[in-house]
Amino acid sequence: MIDLHSHVLPGLDDGAADLDEALRICRAAAEDGTKVLAATPHVRSDYPTTPEQMEAALAEVQAAAADTIRVVPGGELDLEQLGRPREELVRFGLAGNPGWLLVEMPYVGWPLDLADRLFRLRVSGFETVLAHPERNVDVQQRPHLLEPIVNSGTLVQLTAASLEGRLGDGSRKCAFALLELGLAHLVASDAHAPELRGVGLGGVEAAVGDRELARWLTYDVPRSIVERETAPPRPGKRSRRRRLFGRAG
User: Fold this and answer.
1) Is the Cα dihedral 70, 224, 81, 78 positive or negative?
2) pLDDT tens for residues 108-154?
3) Of the residues 54, 58, 151, 157, which has the fewest C-beta atoms closer than 10 A?
4) Where are the domains of the chain?
5) d(Cα 112, Cα 15) in Å, to the nearest integer?
6) Cα Rg for the chain, rounded, in angstroms?
7) What is the C-alpha separation between 26 and 70, in angstroms, rounded?
8) Is 180 in contact with 144 (CB distance < 8 Å)?
9) What DSSP string describes 131-194?
């Protein structure tokens, strides 16, 4: 499995507090079957992570966890941070892929300019993965809100704990609605600590009840970003879009 969302880098945000805790996250993920873990610290006003800070912390964790799991770079960018210089955004490329960014969906409210912001990123050469929209109240009430941006090429990343019901009934129902509508493409842990939000993706198959779909969500699609390849179509369902996942970067 490949997990493209975690807060494993120590001391940068509300995730791992130190290297010891970072290594505990890495070990827990590896024991659950995860082979690749993206370190995606918050990049927003309360955690103004710089590329230099991310890269320095990443190098420390990579060296310490080299025998445990492959840790790759990234960043979880707030919508207000998408106007950073292009050279900075490239350094936050998801899994080290300069053509993909992980964008944080706010928990409250529907950003009226969301589609425009993502379109401007695409014009600049970036495809986007939208993190945990199932935890947004507006999306919970109207999952179809995501359809235009998905049709434009954005991928939707669900949180494993949402599918498993550990983040509440609203998040669980919305996650399954998005899967049913064909509006979800990846599942990640969003791990902040070894015990919090459940490190690992091992429960996804049981939650969705479909081995092929679980593999697509936790391996096939994230692997396409890591390896800069075109993702395979969703198993058992024709693509809803003419161009499945856009540019590989």
Assistant:
1) negative
2) 999 999 999 999 999 999 999 999 999 999 999 999 999 999 999 99
3) 151
4) 2-227
5) 29
6) 16
7) 9
8) no
9) E-GGGSHHHHH-GGGGHHHHHTT-EEEEEHHHHTTTT-HHHHHHHHHHHHTT---EEE--BSSS
pLDDT at 162 over 80: yes
Edge-first strand listing for the sheet containing 2-3:
2-3, 36-38, 70-72
Nearest by Cα to 202 from 186, 190, 218, 213: 218
Q: Which CATH number fits domain 2-227: 3.30.428.10, 3.20.20.140, 3.40.50.300, 3.30.1330.10?
A: 3.20.20.140
Q: What predicted TM-score, i.e. pTM, was given to this entire model?
A: 0.92
2-61 pLDDT, tens digit per residue, is: 999 999 999 999 999 999 999 999 999 999 999 999 999 999 999 999 999 999 999 999
Nearest C-alpha neighbor of 214 from the set 158, 165, 139, 167: 158
For residues 225 and 245, what is the distance between their CA atoms, to the nearest angstrom?
A: 10
CA nearest neighbour of 102 among 36, 157, 22: 157
Length of the chain: 249
| Pair 131, 76: CB distance under 8 Å | yes
